[in-house]
Amino acid sequence: MGGDLDMLFGPAGPGIISRDFGDEMVVANLDTGIFYSLGGSASRIWSGLNSGYTGRQIAASFPQDAAASVSEFLAQLLAEGLLVPAEAPVLNPRGLPGTPTFDAPTLERFDDLQGLLLIDPIHDVGEAGWPLLPQTAIAAE
After folding, report:
1. Is the pTM of this model over 0.70?
2. Does the residue 106 lie in any domain?
């Protein structure tokens, strides 16, 4: 069963981060310590979903019928807890990223660094940076 191609989706919380490395998109769930490598057209699909496009709009941007593959990939992202339904779209004015060629999207899961990601204090850092003491600790000194 696939994901709903007509719904809008966004990251499942602030602990879901992604980075485009050109030939690879990496998504990390800092709450679980699991990270993912997105292959094939998955990078374009992930970026499109996070830019306010529906799965159907993304599938239509490819030169061949990709609706079934996009729906299946969307279901994988939902099952992994990386996406949740979103309310209002914020469309990227430049359109969908990447080239419109289609390769089957893949989601490769890695949990070998899970323990390290979960104990890493840097992902819990506020806007002031790290290492900074909370203002209450500074006032007590």
Report:
1. yes
2. yes
- Please indicate, yes or no, if residue 119 is contained in any of the structural domains: yes
Q: Shortest CA distance to 26 belongs to which of 13, 39, 15?
A: 39
Sheet (strand 106-110) strand order: 16-20, 25-29, 34-39, 106-110
- Count of domains for the chain: 1
Does any domain span residue 2?
no
Q: How far is CA 106 from the centre of its chain?
A: 13
Low-confidence ranges of the chain (pLDDT < 70): 1-2, 89-95, 97-99, 114-141
Q: 42-49 vs 67-79: helix axis angle to the nearest 10?
A: 70
- Expressed as residue numbers, the domain containing 30 is 9-140
